[in-house]
Amino acid sequence: MIKKFAFLILLIFNVLAIVYLVSPTPTLSDLPNSIKSTEPGDTVQIPNVAAYYTNQTRTQVINYYKAIYYSPFRIILNHPPEKAREIIRDTIPSYYFEEFVLPFKESLYINGFEWENDVFTKPDKRVKNKLLFEGKEYKAKITIRTFPVSIEKRLISFLLTETVFILAFLTYKSFLKKP
Fold first, then answer.
1. How far is it between the farthest Cα atoms of the chain?
2. 124-140 residues labelled b (16+ CB within 10 A) or e (exposed)
3. Cross-strand pairs, 133
4. Could you give the percent of the chain with pLDDT greater than 90?
5. Percent helix, strand and coil across the chain, each rounded to 5?
6. What's the pLDDT score for residue 178?
């Protein structure tokens, strides 16, 4: 009876997991109240990258992406700003760098550069980093990059992870039974 119940639970879990894995990821639209950058490195040169000039604060930007990039399993990570040079490009200025992870599906990285808050430049020298685009001054430049995962890879990685957990559980269970 217990084995049938465990099998039923595992079956329901797998059906729900597969529904989650094959469902589409949120569609990202342009950042509102912002101007999309057409500068080199902000468009097609790097896959899945877009950049925006804006006067919005970090809280406003992050709250916008939280609202549209929602999933009950979403994980939000706050990375050190220097990591943006590894993930997006090695010359990107950064004030904050956050990642939204949809486990087994996709990651969205959000890099924000606010020239007035640049921690890598002394306050009296920050004016040289002023953000000008198309003749207008902006407080921040937001660069986003997604790392999508194909449905096939999602399913394979989930099933391999599940297999490892089941094998580890069975090994642990058999280890406890030995005298």
1. 78
2. eeeeeeebebeeeebbb
3. 136
4. 71
5. 40, 25, 30
6. 66
Using the Cα atoms of residue 4, residue 9, residue 12 and residue 17 in order, give the sign of their dihedral: negative
Residue written as tokens 């980093």? Answer: 129
Q: Which residue shows structure tokens 């706050």?
A: 78
Q: Residue 167 and residue 156: Cα distance in Å, rounded?
A: 16
**CB contact at 8 A, 139 and 118:** no
Model confidence over 111-139: pLDDT tens digits? Answer: 999 999 888 888 888 888 899 999 999 99
Q: How far apart are CA 23 and CA 20, in angstroms?
A: 5
Tens-digit pLDDT profile for residues 165-179: 989 988 988 887 766
Residues with Cβ within 8 Å of residue 21, at least 6 apart in sequence: 104, 105, 151, 154, 155, 158
Q: What is the mean pLDDT of residues 48-67?
A: 96
Cα(166)–Cα(164) distance, integer angstroms: 6
DSSP letter (8 states) at residue 42: S
In the chain, domain spans:
29-148, 151-179
Which amino acid does the sequence have at 19? V
